[in-house]
Design a protein that fits this description.
single chain, 21 strands, 17 helices, 3 domains, GROEL, domain 2, GroEL, seven-stranded mixed beta sheet, elongated, three-stranded antiparallel beta sheet, GROEL, domain 1, alpha+beta
């Protein structure tokens, strides 16, 4: 509403809300800080788990940052932006989601202190950008080379990503599987597509029963009980066409005046289906994976010919089968020839946890592999899948970039030290923003120490002291609470985990900081009271075990 003389002018629809200036900034920063606080206690190997219960009563137990934030029913728009950071980090790298969110929250907390000193948001934003650029250079200096042949180092990267996510006992075996799986699917240009690794979850057995298949596992059984259960030296045909009589595109009527004509019509259909099956058998195929339907009569002919057949396979699984066996996906049975077939040493139907699954194994050079995860309960298997996903992603990123950095809070302490040195060379008020950025990065080692039960201040002072003396890779030993050489302790992470986390955190903090006006329309999904975010968020998360109360 604006005053023009004595006549009020309504600009916004009745019921809309507007929060301006410092109040809008305070509300947004408070929301972002609440989200960061929600996941902060999950950070690091000693981080705690969260139990999330949805409206249907389904339970998720995890300490994976992005999973927690996705499951939480977040309403505030600024808080949703924090969830986006976690999603981006997860999509780009697969690990470090909690780090990115906690860092963004701390950057906004520090900016709040600068705003109270009457420093303009634009100046803070400029300082944060300069600090983020400098941080990239410092991290690149700290990075250590890793080669695809360095299995031990790649395994340590996987173990670091898995640490603290349950199943500590089987971590070594799972990390080993992750490295082997990723190395199997590396393309010729060095890129890694983790989608080529199929992870199947099956409840039952123990974590140690997890196995890797150099080929494909398909969660389907053979089409007909008379088909062989096991095919050695398999010749595999991949069909993207139905083994059925095609229906005409236009409506057609056939007039049949005698039983002989009906029989002839049926015989002709049977002959056509038999011709299709004969074509498959003549090409030399003894295993058929079909993306579409297969007529009952065709199933009978295939079973009679001893061809192992599965139908209605997902397109993504067909592509993985093609990569694993070397077969080409054929869209017309007439085009099928021996050269189009793929090979596998063994195709077999087996029962796992009362479910029949088809194993395509002993492939020559599979560019698609599978991992079957086992665990005592559904929650254990789900958390295992999240662990394995993180491990596969970070190993893939490390192979693509060929660079890693020490973990345990070492890069953040070194960044803080170097950024403070850099701040002294920058004049004006931006210097204060760069120093605030340096202080904010220390939230990571502080959180690691706090979650492990150590004193934050003592730990931070000891780490700073060791870095002042030139110990660039000195991080927090989670057992003793003392500074330790992280590379010797094999606590390592891909460089991209850190660079992406810092970039995402800085960009979102700057974006939230630059908002000075929040206009919520009546029909929008924004909360009724934008200023009352603290209550809304705290109350909403109180139902999750008071996650917001730290």
């Amino acid at each position: 509403m604006a005053g023009l003389g004595q006549t009020p002018i309504l600009i916004l629809r009745e019921g809309s809300q507007r929060t301006e200036g410092r109040e809008a900034q305070r509300s947004n920063i408070m929301a972002a800080k609440a989200v960061a606080a929600a996941v902060r206690t999950t950070l690091g190997p000693k981080g705690m788990d969260k139990m999330l219960v949805d409206t249907l009563g389904d339970v998720v137990i995890t300490n994976d940052g992005v999973t927690i934030l996705k499951e939480m029913d977040i309403e505030h728009p600024a808080a949703k932006m924090m969830v986006e950071i976690a999603k981006t980090q997860d999509d780009e790298v697969g690990d470090g989601t909690t780090t990115a969110v906690v860092l963004a929250g701390e950057l906004l907390k520090k900016s709040e202190e600068l705003l109270e000193q009457e420093i303009h948001p634009t100046v803070i934003a400029a300082g944060y950008r300069a600090a983020a650029d400098k941080a990239m250079a410092v991290l690149n200096d700290m990075a250590v080379e890793v080669t695809p042949d360095d299995d031990d180092l790649l395994k340590m990267i996987a173990i670091t990503a898995m640490t603290g996510k349950g199943s500590g006992m089987a971590r070594d075996d799972l990390a080993d599987l992750a490295v082997k799986a990723v190395k199997a699917v590396v393309d010729e240009d060095g890129s890694v597509d983790i989608d080529n690794i199929t992870v199947e979850k099956k409840v039952g057995g123990g974590v140690t029963d997890t196995q890797q298949i150099y080929g494909m596992v398909i969660d389907k059984e053979r089409l007909h009980p008379n088909m062989p259960k096991k095919v050695k030296d398999a010749k595999i045909a991949l069909l993207n066409t139905a083994i059925e009589i095609e229906k005409t595109e236009v409506d057609a009527k056939i007039e049949i005046t005698s039983p002989d004509q009906l029989q002839a019509f049926l015989d002709q259909e049977e002959m056509m289906l038999k011709a299709m099956v004969d074509k498959i058998v003549d090409a030399g195929a003894n295993v058929v994976f079909c993306q579409k339907g297969i007529d009952d009569l065709a199933q009978h002919f295939l079973a009679k010919a001893g061809v192992f057949t599965i139908r209605r396979i997902k397109k993504s699984d067909m592509e993985k089968l093609s990569r694993a066996t070397g077969a080409r996906i054929v869209t017309s049975i007439q085009d099928l020839s021996t050269s189009e077939l793929g090979k596998a040493g063994l195709v077999e139907e087996r029962k796992i946890a009362n479910d029949a699954m088809t194993f395509v194994e002993e492939c020559e050079n599979p560019k698609s592999v599978s991992i079957i995860l086992r665990g005592g309960t559904e929650h254990v298997v789900d958390e295992l899948a999240r662990m394995m996903e993180d491990a596969l992603r970070v190993v893939g990123v490390a192979l693509e970039d060929g660079k890693l950095v020490a973990g345990g809070g070492a890069p953040e302490i070194e960044l803080a030290l170097r950024l403070r040195e850099y701040a002294s060379t920058v004049g004006g008020r931006e210097q204060l923003a760069i120093e605030a950025f340096a202080d904010a990065t220390e939230i990571i080692p502080k959180s690691l120490a706090e979650n492990a039960g150590f004193d934050q201040i003592d730990t931070l002072v000891a780490l700073r002291s060791s870095h002042d003396k030139g110990g660039k890779t000195m991080g927090l030993d989670m057992e003793t609470g003392k500074p330790t050489e992280m590379l010797k302790k094999n606590v390592v992470e891909p460089l991209r985990v850190k660079t992406q986390a810092i970039n995402s955190a800085a960009e979102s903090a700057i974006m939230i900081l630059r908002i000075d006006d929040v206009i919520a329309s009546k029909s929008g999904g924004a909360p009724p009271d934008m200023g009352g975010m603290g209550g809304g968020m705290g109350g909403g998360m109180g139902g999750m075990g008071d996650m917001g109360d730290y």
